[in-house]
């Protein structure tokens, strides 16, 4: 039972989905930079980010699978992560570039730039150790929320608490599924949170 829950959490909060989740949250929070955006534009942005950060990368990973450069979509080994992370970083940067052209707050594009940095950092680290990509993603969410809260004076207490609790459950799930050692979990969360926090605290 615990293994099934761990697997479900790992799928729902797969690092590939985190930027999309976070941008949808940012588009719908009750703060000034989201309230100024018309609903139609929010739908367009959500669809665009979904395509650029999930659908297109998945298609490329499928191609890598067919070329036998990766053994599965779970990317269980450290070596298998190299090409997918490189592809993901490229798509994240393209998404950043596209979002920057929209007449919306730079916060949205800046988050994708931060996600690009984190992906490149994860790529570099993957040459040496199997750091948790799930925890980098959740840590990045927490870092963004804390950075915005402190820098812009926004009340995001409940979002921060939710991110911390989610990080705890997800970290436990990754250990329970024997995907990572505790050190990989802590390192991933710390890297994601610190990098994104530093990016947004100095906006």
Our estimate of the beta-strand percent is under 5%
Pick out the low-confidence regions: none
**Structural class category:** mainly alpha
Main β-sheet: number of strands, strand sense, barrel status? none
Oligomer: single chain
The gyration radius over C-alpha positions equals 16 Å
User: Which word captures the global form?
Assistant: globular
Number of domains: 1
What are the secondary-structure elements, in order, as H or E?
A: HHHHHHHHH
Q: Mean pLDDT across all residues, rounded? A: 88
**How many extended strands?**
0
The level of helicity is over 70%
Describe the 3D structure.
With 203 residues, the chain is mostly helical. It has one domain. The chain has 9 helices and no strands.
